[in-house]
Write a structure and sequence with these properties.
Elements: H1 4-25, H2 27-52, H3 63-117, H4 121-133, H5 135-161, H6 165-175, H7 177-185, H8 193-231, H9 237-247, H10 253-267, H11 271-301, H12 305-319, H13 321-341
Helix pairs in contact: 1-2, 2-3, 2-6, 2-13, 3-4, 3-6, 3-10, 8-9, 8-11, 8-13, 9-10, 10-11, 12-13
C-alpha cells in the first residue's frame, strides 16, 4: 500500500523541477525573493510583538498595520544611517586619497633609512627608487581596482535587491503570509499541496533558526567592535559597530567592507589609529568567528563549520556576493527539506 508521500512524489518532483528552472532562468528575481523572505523572517518577531501590544479597552494593531509600522521605521532608520555614514566615509576617503602620496613618500624614506643603517642599501635602493618613481601610477591603479570592486559588489547587490520592491515584497510576506501561501499553492498540482505545506513547516523552522542564530552573531560582533573602538577613542565608534554588525551578514566580503570603513575612519586621525582599529577588528572577528559563531550557528542550524564554509564558497562562486549572503539560509532550507523527506524508522509495535 503506497503512502501519501509516495503518491505525491511525482508531483513534488515536477514542482521542484519547475522551481529550479525558474531560478535558473530568472536568477535576479529569485535573489530578490530570497532577500525578501530573509527580511520578512528577520522582522517577524518585531511585528508579532507589536501586534500583541494592547492599548485602551484591549484595542491593538492588526498584522498589516504592525507590518507597515515596522517597515516604515526600518526605512527611516536606513535613511538616517545612510545620511550619517555615507558623507562622513566619503569625506574620510577623500582626505585619505589626498594624504596618500605624502604618506607613501615618508614611508619609503623611512624604509630607505632603515636599509641604509643595516647595509641593505645596495640590495633595496634600486627597488625603492622604482617604487618612488611609479608611486603615482600604483596609487591610481589601486584606486581604480578598489572602485571597480565596490561597483561590482554594490552594483550587483542593488540590481538583485531591486531596492524598491524588496520592502514591498517583505511587507506582503509579513502582513498576508497565509494569503500568499494560498495563492502560490494554486500553481501546484493538488496532489502535491499537502506535502508542500508539510515541507513548508520544516522550511519555516529552519529559516527561523537561521535568523535567530545570525541575529545573535551580528549583535555580539557589533557590540564587541563598537565597545572596543570606543575604549580606544576611535571616531564614529558606534556607527562603525553598527556597520560591522550589518557586514557580518555578508560572509568574507563583509569583513573587507567593514575593514575598509574602519581603516578610512582611522586614517582621519593617524595611520597608527587606522592600524590599531584594523588590528582590533581583525582580532575580535577571529575570536568571535572561532569561539562564538560555530557554537551559535551549530546550535541553531546543526551544521558543521566545514559545511558552513563550503556552502558560503559555493554560493559566492555561483551567484557572487548575493549568493554568499543566501548560501547559509539556502543550505538550511535544503537540509530541512531533505530531512523531512528522508524515510524515518517505523514506530515500534
Amino acid at each position: 500500500m503506497t503512502t501519501k508521500l509516495e503518491s505525491a512524489r511525482p508531483a513534488l518532483v515536477w514542482t521542484a523541477a519547475a522551481v529550479a528552472l525558474v531560478v535558473w532562468a530568472l536568477t535576479d528575481l529569485a535573489l530578490l525573493v530570497g532577500y525578501a523572505v530573509l527580511l520578512a523572517y528577520a522582522l517577524l518577531p518585531v511585528v508579532t510583538a507589536l501586534e500583541r501590544v494592547r492599548f485602551g479597552r484591549g484595542w491593538g494593531l492588526s498584522r498589516g498595520v504592525a507590518a507597515g509600522v515596522v517597515m516604515l521605521a526600518l526605512a527611516l532608520l536606513a535613511a538616517a544611517l545612510l545620511a550619517l555614514a555615507v558623507p562622513r566615509l566619503l569625506s574620510e576617503a577623500a582626505h585619505f586619497a589626498a594624504r596618500v602620496p605624502a604618506v607613501a613618500s615618508r614611508l619609503l624614506d623611512e624604509v630607505r633609512a632603515w636599509s641604509a643603517a643595516r647595509g641593505l642599501e645596495p640590495l633595496l635602493g634600486a627597488s625603492l627608487e622604482g617604487l618612488r618613481a611609479n608611486a603615482s601610477d600604483l596609487i591610481q591603479n589601486l584606486g581604480g581596482s578598489l572602485a571597480g570592486g565596490l561597483r561590482w559588489l554594490f552594483g550587483g547587490i542593488a540590481q538583485a535587491l531591486g531596492l524598491v520592491l524588496l520592502p514591498l515584497l517583505a511587507f506582503y510576506l509579513l502582513a498576508e503570509a497565509e494569503a500568499v501561501q494560498a495563492s502560490w499553492l494554486r500553481f501546484v498540482p493538488p496532489g502535491a499541496r499537502p506535502e508542500l505545506v508539510r515541507l513548508g513547516g520544516a522550511v519555516d523552522r529552519a529559516l527561523r533558526s537561521y535568523v535567530r542564530g545570525q541575529a545573535l552573531v551580528c549583535l555580539v560582533m557589533a557590540i564587541a567592535v563598537g565597545v572596543a573602538l570606543a575604549l580606544f577613542r576611535f571616531p564614529l565608534a558606534l556607527l562603525l559597530g553598527v556597520l560591522v554588525g550589518i557586514a557580518e551578514l555578508v560572509p568574507y566580503l563583509g569583513f573587507a567592507i567593514a575593514a575598509l570603513a574602519i581603516g578610512l575612519t582611522g586614517l582621519g586621525v593617524s595611520p597608527l589609529h587606522a592600524l590599531l582599529g584594523l588590528a582590533l577588528y581583525t582580532l575580535i572577528n577571529w575570536a568571535i568567528g572561532t569561539f562564538v559563531t560555530p557554537r551559535v550557528m551549530g546550535r541553531y542550524l546543526r551544521m558543521h563549520p566545514f559545511v558552513v564554509t563550503v556552502s558560503v564558497l559555493a554560493g559566492a562562486k555561483l551567484l557572487g556576493p548575493a549568493g554568499a549572503i543566501l548560501a547559509l539560509p539556502g543550505a538550511a532550507v535544503i537540509q530541512a527539506v531533505v530531512g523531512e523527506l528522508a524515510p524515518h524508522d517505523p514506530p515500534p509495535d
